[in-house]
Amino acid sequence: MSEPSQSQMSNPDLDSLTGELDERHVFHSWSAQGALTPFVIASGRGSRVWDHAGNSYLDFSSQLVNVNIGHQHPAVIEAIREQASLLATVAPATANLARGEAAKRVAALAPDGFNKVFFTNGGADANENAIRMARQFTGRDTVLSTYRSYHGNTGAAVVATGDWRRIPNEFARGHVHFFGPYLYRSEFWADSPEQESERALRHLERVIQSEGPSSIAAILLESIPGTAGVLLPPPGYLAGVRELADRYGIMLIFDEVMAGFGRSGRWFAFEGYDVVPDLITFAKGVNSGYVPTGGVIINDPIAHFFDERVFPGGLTYSGHPLAMASIVAALDAMASEGIVENAASVGREHIAPALAALFNDHPIVGEVRGEGVFWALELVTDRTSREPVGAAVMGRIKKELLARGLLPFLADNRIHVVPPCVVTPEEVAEAAAIYDEVLSLDLL
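RE: above sequence
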């Protein structure tokens, strides 16, 4: 993919205009509006973005960890263009070829026994509707989810979320939180992955018993918690959750919104853990966010439950044809171009050793964890105490990374290393050199 032309990207005045318009008219999410100076992006190709002046940045954020296929993939852009010329929108109650083809492709990637897909506008309402399906199917109310999680910003999804964002938004009922595994900061005083898994499962069962199993509709888990820190499940944990769900008649929902469609080096992250849920939510990487979309992949028993019962939910733009065309093109390109396999091999052969070298060279790096193109560097003031670095340190790190041409994803005391699945070994080496230079500064 070629870079934008000089005529497209040679006007710094447009950066100023963009900033002025943004400050005057745009209200941003999760922000105090007066403290913002948003970063201007005018265009992108593959793993890079540009501002209007032509300054290039290596995008190791994938925006919001969603541009898995890279920016401006020509096959996806062309599919959207072709669909727009044919039919730009259509009601969800109709049948549409693009929607059927998209559902067929998504279901084909799921485990056996998943044949139906309910399309949504994004990941939050995918989780919202999965919760609704589980409640309808079981006749129960309570949803269990972890404190270290993010499930979206709609009514039930934001309350299922465990981090601070749920607190000013707790208007939905029937949500209970528990602690998931996180060995580096174990809530269970564990000293091995196996012990962390065992103790976390014991804790979850006690929560189930204490809340009353007959009241619990679903356990909602990110297969790999993303925004919470790229927390890979320890051995046996997800299978243990599945066993608990089966024992107590509880539905298991895997949130694959961030982890799915290549991010882990697999089509679905849970495929690496020998476990199958009852409902799978997705968004982000299914079409790299080119057009807003998401959905729920539904197992056959739950899907058939609604054969003679009305499902009490719907969205005006469910299965929007432009989004559906982008899904078909994105999944076909990812398969034919070996993009998921690239994520796995680049992660294993290039990102992992590069981040291990950063750990060896910089005491500020307390832990490295991840797989595929889904990694986190946890930064600490001291490796013994594991005290997280503060916001001022992270703010400086962001500034220094941007100054060197790298667009980062930062969360709490972590640098999340999350490039597109199409990232090359050369781009990994470039980013690693930038991380190394910034982490070599006197940050503490």
